[in-house]
# Entry
Amino acid sequence: MLFGSIGKRGVGQYDTIMQTMTTTQSIELFKTALHGNNYSPKTVRAYVDDVLQFTQWLATGSVSADDPKTISKLDINKFLGYLANKRATGKTRYRKIVAIKKFFAFLKENEVIKNNPTETVIPPLKEKRLPAVLKKNEYKALLFEASQNPRDYAIIQTILQTGLRISEVTNLLVNDIDLINKTLTVRQGKGKVDRIIDLPDIAVAALQAYLKVRGEGSDEKIFLSRNKKGMYVTTVRLAVHKYLKKRVLPKARCIHSVTPSVHISHSMACLQRFCKASWDIRNWNQPYSMSIWLTRR
# Structure
């Protein structure tokens, strides 16, 4: 079962509640079930937002949109067509259909509906595109530009050397960093799993330099903003974009190619693939480009 049925107070009472439940009420119940099954807040928000978008679109052309029993497979396929006309990518449409499928599977499991209209809906194909990449000299320029700011330089080196997501970096606490044993503890990262990561010397040096000037803050987060509080994911992303736009990339490429969708932590996988020892950007001479991902959360 996807989520498991909710507790039944009594067969008659349960059947009455389920059979008269509106789409709006169903979405709230779906949201509660997601939280109860320990889905992350971001995942819950994404699923609910996608389902809401579908039902809100449906309401513009159907007076029975708030009755989940009246929603059909044809409605869902029309919604896919609507998204296609809006030039939503295949990846976006795929994600929305996955959310809608989970929603209706949940409703059927809990007897809100008898038939699941999404069972035979085929999700759209997802595009497979190469990530935007930075060349070797651009990586050097990025680190050079950030070198005058100990905090930003430490953030970039931490992500490059460990492959952490930006959200994992912003959640790091001072006690999570062990510079003596050269390790870093990620708590409740992807999949709500704790893990310990070795820190290369270059990352240790960057963190040591930052901690010397960090000062005390009202937050236990290691990376602090100007007001001495923990940084947000958006703040970190904008900080790195600032260096990319400054001198690292040509203006046209920065705006139209790399900046919107580059991810910084993906480069770690490339490093592990091509380099056996700890990587230092100054000594790296491999003839490969590596992608910097900034939108990964």
